[in-house]
Amino acid sequence: MSDVDTGLRNEEGIAAVIGVLRQRFGDQVQTGETLRAQHAHTTTYIAGQLPDAVIFPNSTDEIKTIVRACADHRVPVIPFGTGSSLEGHVNAPLGGISIDMARLDKVLEVNAEDLDCTVEPGVTREQLNTHLRDTGLFFPIDPGANASIGGMTATRASGTNAVRYGTMRENVMAVTAVTAAGEEIRTARRARKSSAGYDLTRLFVGSEGTLGVLTSVTLKLQGIPQAISGGVCPFPSVEAACNAVIMTIQMGIPVARIELLDALQMKACNAYSNLSNPESPSLFLEFHGTEAGVAEQASLFAEIAAECGGGEFLWTTNPERRTELWKARHNAYWASLQLRPGAKGLSTDVCVPISRLAECVVETQEDIAASGLIAPIVGHAGDGNFHVLVLIDTDIPAEVAAAEAFVGRLNTRALAMDGTCTGEHGIGQGKRRYLPLEMGEGVSVMRQIKQALDPMNIMNPGKIFSFND
Amino acid sequence: MSDVDTGLRNEEGIAAVIGVLRQRFGDQVQTGETLRAQHAHTTTYIAGQLPDAVIFPNSTDEIKTIVRACADHRVPVIPFGTGSSLEGHVNAPLGGISIDMARLDKVLEVNAEDLDCTVEPGVTREQLNTHLRDTGLFFPIDPGANASIGGMTATRASGTNAVRYGTMRENVMAVTAVTAAGEEIRTARRARKSSAGYDLTRLFVGSEGTLGVLTSVTLKLQGIPQAISGGVCPFPSVEAACNAVIMTIQMGIPVARIELLDALQMKACNAYSNLSNPESPSLFLEFHGTEAGVAEQASLFAEIAAECGGGEFLWTTNPERRTELWKARHNAYWASLQLRPGAKGLSTDVCVPISRLAECVVETQEDIAASGLIAPIVGHAGDGNFHVLVLIDTDIPAEVAAAEAFVGRLNTRALAMDGTCTGEHGIGQGKRRYLPLEMGEGVSVMRQIKQALDPMNIMNPGKIFSFND
């Protein structure tokens, strides 16, 4: 990265705090290099930056004790869920203490009548849905990885069904968090809505660990739909597919998922899963509702697709057949990697108003071709959000440079279309340089808040904001 | 109110700033007492506190100039929309300059394909919907009054259809605002979702003018539903009605409105509108969707109502007949006032998890009876939010005291049920004392943010936070 981290390691403080924590927590504190390296693992090409120790707390009180010790010695605190974030969020550029939430994995309460639950931050989304299995409820947000709820909250995650159910922004009702001063706060009660003061919940959602350590998250839940229908439809062009998306949204069809795969991605999927889908831009759809409702929704979409020049819309309410139709989408990531075996996938995302989605995707495809990169595109089209997986050999500096330059142009393009440099991955380290381009003076306001709540900059330093701006 | 405002008026600064503004803005600055009194008007029994001048800016640049002048002289700035807020939000306890947004009434852009629009803060919701009439789109949030979009944003307003479409929290995509330093910021782009940094949009939504002056608001819009069905159903008790609400939400029926009127309110409505509805707790419902969908939703609700012991559910898709069925709900406010002609209505609201709604309403009815008050209840039941309109003679101190004591118990009751002291009215001056009870240490975090962004406390001082805590 060209964002040089010029912050200084506080060697003395780090040594002191490890001593204090060891004395208090014994072998809950680990300093072995392998474990530390796992906690600096990122799924990007951003180099790992190891924390000096990893600690496994068992309770909020223990987190308070850890944060207070780190505050006393001005040592960085890096919260860690499952490490599936994509922009270097768990790196420790100045070292410090990684707080691994693995033991904080309890579902604290489920209020079925209120359609909500409260979980510890280390609970993963799959674990939560397993826990909910007998309640008739589910937690819809699905970013792909089996991420922790704490991590999903911290990065404002979303995924395929955000078009229907919203992102973590809409689905987190409250959090408890330990602030930089070592105090626990609760950001809201369990009421569905409130006009009581500043929206601290939304401030913590997406704050990437820079304002405090999450200790519990209260989530909205959804009733499992009575029926689900799903299908796939090819289109002659990205524009035609995007027009169908726009009409679907405008008509108010409450589509649960509407995913765009470009021609290269479809080709990769056919090869990987031995399928024979048309190798043209395609939409994968899912509808949730009553039996009659999901059939009606699918029929309405079929009309729209035909009007937009789409090919045959294959759809079904049969679960096995639906899984079959969605197979290409389900395996898209692994299929992509096989386009260039041995390469590393650099996953990046942007999000634009849906009226600009086709233009943004097409220009990006042209850019990919002109750059000589291999990079299939998958989009959460209903939100105007899409991912590019750039397949590079990270040992070849020219490839890394080409990929970086491409990401820069992609972000500039999205911003020029009134979009954002990240729809769901977050800023972390990887997108810090684009945030000021997107937010202008707004970044100063963010910095003022950060400074007010974490004056010593011990909370996940070097994320969202660079040290040297 | 027993929250004494011990902040001091800055007489010298106020005189100076009025001089500066007069010189720059001429008769856009008004100091007549009648006009100033109108700008301190509140719809509660909270006494008016007049600003020293009212100014009518024509542009964002003019707002910047005004705020900078006020900052230079440390003079309070009070943004004013239509004055329909309910908790003293537009009062000027330390005097200062009321900025009336009446001339900032332009719809700046409508992006029909993206289902969004951007408006100046003085645009009212009815004006916006009139403007949208030919687009097939509408803006759903309806707090009752024809409030300004700026004011609705500042108070995090909602209303009857929040259960389907969310509150201002979910429907504001971005704002521009002039900060206390006189800089304009934009909190987000037009992408449907973003993970880029702190959620400044949500921080400004509900900040009640205490962090800056809104200069534009970007809103989500909805497609006008193809069909609407609506109806009314009586229940033998509040519990039975609330059980029907819970089952409706749990089943995922996408009800657009589900309003609870208690027996006293139904009685008032019958008398006022010459109706013959059963005088028992009743639910008023509305469903939005396709022709087939709204019929299906109404049928499903009819089954639920029967299961919960409800009486006949009268419903229709005919617009005139629907208006007829909803007449009681539409006229509820005016009907209430006729329960005690000449009395003033003190409107207060709380919101609890819906599993506690019946208990909270019933205890509140018992409290009303024990207090000798006349106070019908109307609830946005799908959100667990309800209003009590306490009818008092504000010239009788004992009545005011009884009403205040009742409001105190109502808030304590809602908080004990993990609810909030205000679902949609905001804190303003009227609910400041309850915010610390609800938020605990969270209020300190709010204060730190306020202090960081408005160190001189010139932005609508005395709202959300008391001077003397």
UniProtKB/TrEMBL annotation, chains A, B:
<dbReference type="Pfam" id="PF02913">
    <property type="entry name" value="FAD-oxidase_C"/>
</dbReference>
<keyword id="KW-0560">Oxidoreductase</keyword>
<keyword id="KW-0285">Flavoprotein</keyword>
<protein>
    <recommendedName>
        <fullName>D-lactate dehydrogenase (cytochrome)</fullName>
        <ecNumber>1.1.2.4</ecNumber>
    </recommendedName>
</protein>
<comment type="similarity">
    <text>Belongs to the FAD-binding oxidoreductase/transferase type 4 family.</text>
</comment>
<dbReference type="Pfam" id="PF01565">
    <property type="entry name" value="FAD_binding_4"/>
</dbReference>
<dbReference type="InterPro" id="IPR016169">
    <property type="entry name" value="FAD-bd_PCMH_sub2"/>
</dbReference>
<dbReference type="InterPro" id="IPR016166">
    <property type="entry name" value="FAD-bd_PCMH"/>
</dbReference>
<dbReference type="InterPro" id="IPR016164">
    <property type="entry name" value="FAD-linked_Oxase-like_C"/>
</dbReference>
<dbReference type="InterPro" id="IPR006094">
    <property type="entry name" value="Oxid_FAD_bind_N"/>
</dbReference>
<dbReference type="InterPro" id="IPR036318">
    <property type="entry name" value="FAD-bd_PCMH-like_sf"/>
</dbReference>
<keyword id="KW-0274">FAD</keyword>
<dbReference type="InterPro" id="IPR004113">
    <property type="entry name" value="FAD-bd_oxidored_4_C"/>
</dbReference>
<dbReference type="InterPro" id="IPR016171">
    <property type="entry name" value="Vanillyl_alc_oxidase_C-sub2"/>
</dbReference>
<keyword id="KW-0809">Transit peptide</keyword>
<feature type="domain" description="FAD-binding PCMH-type">
    <location>
        <begin position="47"/>
        <end position="224"/>
    </location>
</feature>
